[in-house]
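Sequence in, structure out.
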Amino acid sequence: MEPVLVIPAFQPTEGLLTVVEEIRSHRPLMPILVINDGSKPEHGVLFERVRQLGATVLEHAINLGKGQAIKTAINEVLINPAYAQAVGIVTADADGQHLSKDVFKVADSLLGEPTTLWIGARAFDEDVPFRSQLGNTVTRYVFKLLVGRMIYDTQSGLRGIPRHLLKKLMTLRSTRYEFELDMLIEAAHQKLAIKETSIQTVYIDHNSSSHFRPLLDSVRIYFVFLRFCALSIVTALLDFVVFSIAFWFGSTIFASFIFARLVAGTFNFVVSKQMIFRSEASIWPEALKFSCLVLALMGISYVLVHAMVGYLGLNVLVSKVIAEFGLFLLSFAAQRLLIFSRPDEPVEAA
């Protein structure tokens, strides 16, 4: 059965009607779910016209965010017998920036490979607004760092989502624009194939109708990484203080490393597990892997510090700061991919 087209809408323009009319005209059997995400009452007439075109409109009493709107639609798809045979869902924006031909292209890709997460990838040329170019470029490389996979268009709202991923997406905590990045991370953790198909890039009036807030929503998108940065700074300070005290009282460089890593490593593990990566796996396997990582990083850091002191004549404490800064990204990638990664259990079929 055709995938269900899901369109989250907050304060939509006439572009929403254009999308629904074109889908209805060229693909009348494709079910359409429009989610009114707490729009103002004056938009009620537009949503009523959408209903008259044959789309189902779900309502939020208040604005809950794009991610929550998609999850509301997912819940409807999973519980409504009318959608029981749907291969999955296709998400599209309400402002008309996703052309009907591209919606069909993503839908056909999902029908052809129903276990793959499909992304409609835009071409970022000189006509693309700067904030969109910048956001996608930064997110592309942050995602590569977080997950180890390169996705060209991580922020595309046009996606074909396989049915067997839907229940898992319902459990994600994110509710706004960061939901789309979390979806990619979850799919990668589940070892799902993620493929991109090229679509036409359309920005109406320089994307002025978008409700994406560059500063606030970018902070939400990168929150996992920002939390890790904050923890790393606190851990580094704790490590430095313990190392300095131990070295001040006459310990050797190596002994000072041991004392510092024991204290700072324990602190870092507990906070990383509970607050940064929010892992629910058994503590002992993760503790063992974390201990191995700490020992490996300590060894590398010791060699670097010893070399900078012995061969370059740098101060011990200065050398310590340089070495720890250089190992920051290595530590993040190792913890995300090797220690606090989610178990590779299969996604339950809906």
